[in-house]
Amino acid sequence: MKKRTSLKDIATRVGVSTALVSYVLNNQKEDRISKEVAARIKAVAKELNYRTNQIAKGLKTSKTFTIGLIVADISNSFSASLARIIEDEADKNGYTVLFGSSDENDIKLRKLAHEMINRGVDGLILAPTENAIELLLELKETEVPFVLLDRYFPQFRSSYVALDNFQAGYMATEHAIESGGKRIGMINFRSTHFHLEERTRGWLSALREHKIPGGKKQLRLVREHHLESEVQKTVNSLLSQQEPVDTLLLASNMIAIHALRYIIEKRLKVPKDIAIIVIDETEAFEFFYAPLTFIRQPLQEMGQTATRILLDNISHNKAVSQVNLSPELVVKKSSLHHYSSPLKR
Amino acid sequence: MKKRTSLKDIATRVGVSTALVSYVLNNQKEDRISKEVAARIKAVAKELNYRTNQIAKGLKTSKTFTIGLIVADISNSFSASLARIIEDEADKNGYTVLFGSSDENDIKLRKLAHEMINRGVDGLILAPTENAIELLLELKETEVPFVLLDRYFPQFRSSYVALDNFQAGYMATEHAIESGGKRIGMINFRSTHFHLEERTRGWLSALREHKIPGGKKQLRLVREHHLESEVQKTVNSLLSQQEPVDTLLLASNMIAIHALRYIIEKRLKVPKDIAIIVIDETEAFEFFYAPLTFIRQPLQEMGQTATRILLDNISHNKAVSQVNLSPELVVKKSSLHHYSSPLKR
DNA sequence: ACGAATCGTTTAAACGTTTAAATAAAGATG
DNA sequence: CATCTTTATTTAAACGTTTAAACGATTCGT
Q: Taxonomically, which superkingdom (chains A, B) (predicted)?
């Protein structure tokens, strides 16, 4: 890489000190600097195509105008959409973003966070893994500004922006009931993640309030790393038990993808054989023959709010902001028991 | 943010110079340094939880172990998947990645590239926009290592990793013909992007070689910013002309998404009324009632190769590497004229 | 006309590293 | 024992900025 032009280059060319060049280029002390010299400096800067070395500036000012974003997996559409929104919001404020995927792995999350901090990010937006508290304590201790995204720990006080997951579970289940569901099963991850447990609690609570029998008997938990096989197994078990379930509440888009594949393979009819509701969204849902009813997360608001809170935190305001966003129920066809699908066989 | 511990802190604590601490922590001059002092320094470093300030190190060494990645839109699954692969490959080599979305906008691309360079990235992986050549010339001139991703300019010599798009177009078309297609239309972007034009050229070439009539008459071009309406219009025009097309070759996943929506809306039967083949891939395709036949890009290889070439370029090898990857045809149902879809109406 | 205020600019230190060169102390050589 | 090596460590400059403080030269007020 070629040497870039520095303040010094400009200074020697114009015949002034680097300090003066710095002042001019940062529009500081404008009233104190002679118009002619300022103009000359700016001209030479443009001529030599000067661009600030943010590394040097960052070293001096301990500000890099870079934020770190750690998601579970950038290749997942949920993360990718958020990343895009955060990128735009950061950009509006002159920030650039470093990203990383934790793969729901505590060690990796920690490593990524450290790498980013070592690179001088001004703050972090992160979707914490299950056992991230230790890391979060460290961040708090070292006063690194951060905002949790999508998840948080109720017992740990920090800024976060997340969905109201209880409401999401509740809403989905209530809709299932109103659409004629009598036995509503749920498939969720085997996880201690609060946001996932909340979805289950919402489901359970709606069942109870509407006096729907079954309860936890109709809950199935699957492991992230055996998703395909466990989703198949659990769908199967919910459908083939003594009193089969007529509605399936799926706790995430990844679970839904696998369930859908299995349903297609087994030629089950949605919603006649089984109604489906998903918490989460992905492009694929609308192309299924019985377009899926799902709970939409307000991604735009989630990403923007998280970014704003972080930037706010970075620049002054040390307040803790906790934001729970409302889910939106998007009713399509997969949940309507009375809907007869175009699939005939 | 709290002050982090520096070499100086360790040095004063141990009672040695910062130079020595630096040597020890970087495992340099190991044979020249007394075991005891080295051990002491390492102990204190751990105790004070020392972590290198990469900003300072970067300033001194002009190496940040950060690369910049500029895609068209990180929220698009194609970009997101590549980003993930690149992230992993970079991470394996101790690099972190800054990302940005160009939105196919030359100005934005330029701005992003500059921001990244100002932040001292060691190199750039970028999907260039249509008129990126000026920027690329600048990168070449200033000797910033870079690799083009997904696209390149045949008249501009630089490293790149891309699909063999001609072959993709050719392959898709040949398959259409072999599956009984008689009149094969294509919808592509209105763009001067070489990689898109190549897809058209491949299609055209296959038509000619198989003596299929129609040729450019059956080509429709749509604008990115009016995708929905123009895709509808063009699908319609290809199907309602004097001699309607029986197969549609769609040049990208975004075009396909819109076409599919329209097809569903209009209740067209795939593949009976119209067969579909897409160049590009997205999760949604498999859930359409007639799962889509498509051309798969070897994303893994694409991302990994690009990253490796870049890192190679950064560390020594100034050679230009140009890699054209082979597309893979994935045959499902949408292209098979003899296949009778489960959709009955 | 003299000290004070103002003006335009420079000096110099600092941010946290790296690294070539210098140095002091100890050991080997003849 | 004088000299040369080796060993272990330090010195000091540098990377490219920022910024408080200092500076000399004008201009001002009385």
A: Bacteria
Cis amide leading into A271 (omega within 30): yes
Give the CA count within 13 Å in the CB-facing half-sphere of A174: 15
Residue A312 clears pLDDT 70, i.e. is over it: yes
State phi, psi for A116 to the nearest 5 degrees. Answer: -70, -45
CB B185 within 8 A of CB B220: yes
pLDDT, tens digit, 9 for 90 and up, residues B19-54:
999 999 999 988 899 999 999 999 999 999 999 999
State the pLDDT at residue A340: 58
Q: Over range A282-290, report the average pLDDT.
A: 95
Host H or E run for residue A250 = strand A247-250
pLDDT band (50, 70, 90) for residue B339: low
CATH class of residue range A165-297: alpha beta
Query: Domain residue spans in chain A?
Result: 7-52, 65-163+299-326, 165-297
Tens-digit pLDDT profile for residues A146-180:
999 999 999 999 999 999 999 999 999 999 999 99
Asked if B100 reaches chain A (Cβ–Cβ under 8 Å), the answer is yes
What is the CATH code of the structural domain delimited by A65-163+299-326?
3.40.50.2300
Q: Is the pLDDT of residue A343 over 50?
A: no
- pLDDT computed for residue A337 by the predictor: 76
Structure tokens at B207: 């038509």
Report the pLDDT value the prediction gives residue B49, as an integer from 0 to 100.
96
Return the CATH fold of B7-52: 434 Repressor (Amino-terminal Domain) (1.10.260)
Contact A203, A173 (CB under 8 A): yes
Tell me whether domains B62-163+299-326 and B165-297 share a fold.
Answer: yes
Looking at residue A343, what DSSP letter applies?
Answer: B
Question: Which nucleotides in chain D lie less than 7 Å from some protein C-beta?
Answer: 7-12, 14-21
pLDDT tens column, A7-47: 999 999 999 999 999 999 999 998 899 999 999 999 999 99
Residue B338's alpha-carbon distances to A107, B178, B199, B341, in angstroms, are: 52, 12, 26, 9
A-contacting residues of B 133-162, CB under 8 Å? Answer: 141-145
Q: Is B103 part of the contact surface with chain A (CB cutoff 8 Å)?
A: no
Token duo for residue B330: 């994935």
Which pLDDT belongs to residue B343? 45
Question: Of A4, A264, A284, which has the smallest distance from its Cβ to B284's Cβ?
Answer: A284
- CATH superfamily membership of B62-163+299-326: Response regulator (3.40.50.2300)
- Closest CA in chain B for residue A6: B118
Contact residues, chain A, for B91 at CB < 8 Å: 100
Average pLDDT over residues A116-123: 98
Which residues fall inside 7 Å of strand C, measured at CB?
A: A 15-20, 23, 29, 31-34, 37-38, 56, 59-60, 62; B 3-4, 6-8, 18-19, 22-23, 25-26, 28, 50, 52-53, 56-57, 59-61
Tell me the whole-structure pTM to 2 decimals.
0.95
CA distances from A253 to A176, A249, A297 (A): 18, 11, 12
Which residue would you say has higher pLDDT here, B342 or B158? Answer: B158
Nearest CA in chain B to A108: B91
Confidence band for B254, pLDDT divided at 50, 70 and 90: very high
> Given the DSSP bridges, would you call strands B293-296 and B328-330 parallel, antiparallel or unpaired?
antiparallel
Chain B residues 55-94 within an 8 A CB cutoff of chain A: 55-56, 58-59, 62, 64, 66, 73-77, 79-81, 83-85, 87, 91
Do β-strands A247-250 and A275-279 pair in parallel, antiparallel, or remain unpaired?
Answer: parallel
The pLDDT score that the predictor gives to residue A136 is 98
Query: Residue A102 carries which DSSP code?
Result: -
Average pLDDT, integer, range B61-75: 97
